[in-house]
Specification:
Blueprint: H1 6-9, H2 15-28, E1 34-35, H3 47-58, H4 71-85, E2 94-97, H5 100-111, E3 117-122, H6 127-134, E4 138-143, H7 154-160, E5 165-171, H8 183-194, E6 200-204, H9 220-223, E7 231-236, E8 249-252, H10 255-266, H11 274-285, H12 290-310, E9 325-326, H13 347-358, E10 360-361, E11 363-364, E12 374-377, H14 382-397
Length: 414
């Protein structure tokens, strides 16, 4: 009898976490590695947030809180939704977890079981399919196209829905592509969902504050109030406020779902770190002006990286609308050989060769369900990005562009 559960066998380790660990190991060996695989802002957590955490410790706020978040933080989250999204929630409709991932995890485990399907547009954040699989559901991967801006169309969504469909996961702006849906595009998708009352929407808005070129962020519950009773809107402080290690995420949705999520959390982590909750309270309630400066910095880095990659032979890099990733295609490079002679048969081989031969760590596109691409996080300094681009260009220029030996990989369906 196997010792490990069947549930564990249904999932795999996070490819992004695995690459970050490999980079750390190589750097510990003395290798000169530029890591562009982690989705983590390089800015320090703002001083007023750090001071709030210190003050909480000094005031003795080091004990348990309510399982799914302290009342003052839930109230601040309600105020955030009203202020920034025009959404009115009450504290009993709010769940606070140990990072956005726990909110997603709790919601899906509380609602998905064998026979249930969850539509996941590709490219997708690596954990979505595995969380669904762990819950016993079936991830239904809905590929998007670069020519559509890596956004799914209403017609494609309509075709993907079956009587077994329980959720649609929408991440805008997207990890890994940076694609974002404006209000009109969201309304078109919502119009399809109105015809299918069994389908709920999990809106992953974690990159809300990282939209560029004047793009106006929108979220499903905001643009289509008739769907509100079957929308869970997830967000957090990790990306916008450079608080990845503080581990605070939150979600807003129907009371019945929020209570079920709290029940799960009561038997897993219990409350998120009390100190981190006080820091998140300061983040959401304090000054917001610095976000524009950070956004400007990220946009400048995006422009640098897009231009640099498009100067590399064999790489085609679209311009993302948000987040801090680019998702370039290496379709033209399939069948080439790396400078060291490795046949580039797919994007995973490309990423490994780039790391081994050029010392630049990226994440291969198959990890996100859409090949042949790779993801770069440009949440790094301009000097670091400039050197990485120099190495990538040298790598591409050193490749042997022999005739194509293998057709590009097709999107994976799980």
């Amino acid at each position: 009898m196997p010792f490990l559960s069947k549930a564990v066998s249904r999932i795999k380790p996070s490819p992004t976490v695995a690459m970050t660990g490999r980079v750390a190991a190589l750097q510990a060996e003395g290798r000169d590695i530029i890591g562009l695989s982690a989705g983590e802002p390089d800015f320090d957590t703002p001083a007023h947030i750090r001071e709030a955490a210190k003050a909480a410790i000094d005031a003795g706020h080091t004990r348990y809180t309510a399982v799914d978040g302290m009342a003052s933080l839930k109230q601040a989250i309600c105020q955030k939704f009203a202020r920034e999204n025009g959404l009115d929630y009450t504290p009993d409709q709010i769940s606070v977890g140990t990072g956005g991932k726990q909110i997603l995890f709790n919601a899906l485990l509380a609602s998905v079981g064998p026979g249930d399907e969850v539509i996941i547009p590709a490219p997708y954040w690596v954990s979505y399919p595995d969380i669904v699989a762990l819950a016993g559901g079936t991830p239904v991967i809905l590929p998007s196209r670069a020519e559509d801006g890596f956004r799914i169309t209403p017609d494609a969504l309509r075709r993907a829905i079956t009587p077994q469909t329980k959720w649609l996961i929408l991440n805008s702006p997207s990890n890994p592509s940076g694609a974002a849906y404006d209000a009109e595009q969201l309304r078109a998708l919502c119009a399809v969902l109105l015809d299918h009352p069994q389908v709920w929407v999990l809106a992953d808005d974690i990159y809300e504050h990282l939209c560029f070129d004047g793009f106006r962020f929108a979220t499903p519950a905001q643009v289509e109030p008739r769907l509100r009773d079957r929308v869970l809107t997830m967000n957090g402080v990790s990306k916008a406020y450079a608080m990845t290690g503080w581990r605070i995420g939150y979600g807003a949705g129907p009371v019945e779902l929020i209570r079920a999520m709290a029940k799960l959390q009561s038997q897993s982590t219990s409350n998120p770190s009390t100190i981190s909750q006080h820091a998140a309270l300061a983040a959401l309630s304090g000054p917001q002006e610095f976000l524009q400066g950070w956004r400007d910095d990220f946009q400048a880095r995006r422009d640098l990286v897009v231009a640099g990659l498009n100067d590399c032979p064999g790489i085609d890099c679209p311009v993302p609308q948000g987040a801090f990733y680019v998702y370039p295609s290496i379709r033209a490079m399939i069948g080439w050989r790396s400078p060291a002679g490795t046949p580039i048969t797919d994007d995973e081989v490309f990423a490994n060769a780039l790391l081994d031969e050029a010392g630049v760590a990226v994440v291969f596109g198959a990890a996100f369900g859409l090949s042949p691409h790779f993801r770069i996080s440009y949440a790094a300094s301009t000097d670091t990005l400039t050197e990485a681009l120099r190495r990538i260009r040298a790598f591409c220029e050193g490749c042997d562009a022999s005739p194509r030996a293998t057709a590009p990989s097709s999107p994976r369906r799980r």
